[in-house]
UniProtKB/TrEMBL annotation:
The chain crosses the membrane at residues 21-40. It comes from the Eukaryota. This is Uncharacterized protein. Keywords: Membrane, Transmembrane, Transmembrane helix.
Amino acid sequence: MKYGPRLGVNKMFLNRKPKCAVLQCVLILTSILFLGFVLIKSQFNLASTDKNIPAKNKIGFENNGRHLYKRSGLRVNFETNNLDLRIIVITYNRPMSMLRCLNSLNDVDYVGHRVKLDIFIDRSSESKKVDQETYSIAKAFSFLHGEKTVNVHKKNVGLYGQWLDTWRPTEDNKEIAVILEDDMTVSPYFYKWLRAAHAHYDTRADVSGYALANVYQLAAAPGGIVVPLNYTAYMYAILGSWGFSPHRDRWQEFLVWYDSASTNASFNPYVEGIRHTEWYKSFQKTNSEGSMWTMWHIYFSHIHKLYCVFPNLPDRYMFGQNHHEAGLHYSGNVKADQLDKLVSKSNWNPDFLKMPKNAIKVDYYGRISFR
Ligand SMILES: *[C@@H]1O[C@H](CO)[C@@H](O)[C@H](O)[C@H]1NC(C)=O
Ligand SMILES: *[C@@H]1O[C@H](CO)[C@@H](O)[C@H](O)[C@H]1NC(C)=O
């Protein structure tokens, strides 16, 4: 009875203009569907990218989450709120480096915490292919401390996509994340240090994140950075991207700002008076600034007076080491630091976890202040 009148109207409608109305409806509906399809397709450009990829490169996706990234076409689920640590390994075509990195992750003491390993593999910018060996090794790797996922970007995303799209935490997410390029190795003690560092400094509003390695000395102030060793950690104005663990809130703010600022083609993230800006400008001259996403973070940190926390250990030992391999940053002729500087059983000291309450701050020029 409830639907009676409506059916009646339909009947009347159909009775008056029988074939014509039905045909019109079908035509309009088809057009709407087609237009919608074209719009969605052009926005994300997924299907057309996939068309260029040979069948053997059509690799399945293990994540079926909710966040779809325009850069990569990848869906990643960050809804998992029960993790203590999320390790993100970004890689492209250095399978042996990646394996060395992954093996070092298996040797870490995670103090029984809930850990997840997310591996992200980029595609070639030219052929759009996935490096099969990298993919096979990532899939075959057995992570001994928690769940592992292997995520293949749907298109080439470069270092920007690898860094900026692989950790987008929700506001109530309490996990610590660390992003590792594949030519990194970590100390078995890195998580202990990272957890302590977050616990000491996460409440500060001027912390952009935490770095496992030391400040890159070439980039540092002319005289290097010298901080008294009774300070087990210090804050420096420029992030360390060798094992970077972002502060959740500052990272969210940075990503929102970047998404908007980077749409302005006449804006450049220059910070006057530092070498990074000169490097970035020289990259721009060869259209290769795409390898230096960090310049945007440096600029963001500059305008908001943010600092990155670094370990300050005897003999410059560290919790993550970069092996300076050929890739997007280096052409391979940078002399590798052969010396293993990772904190190990023989030089680990639990006092490393006691960090100064009043952190020491180091500016671009190596000048120290306390605040
Ligand atoms: C480090 O040593 C200096 C000089 O001995 C002292 O003034 C400072 O308070 C010490 N800082 C810490 C965090 O122990
Ligand atoms: C884009 O950047 C330029 C250079 O920094 C600036 O002058 C301009 O106001 C910006 N435009 C918008 C819409 O923000």
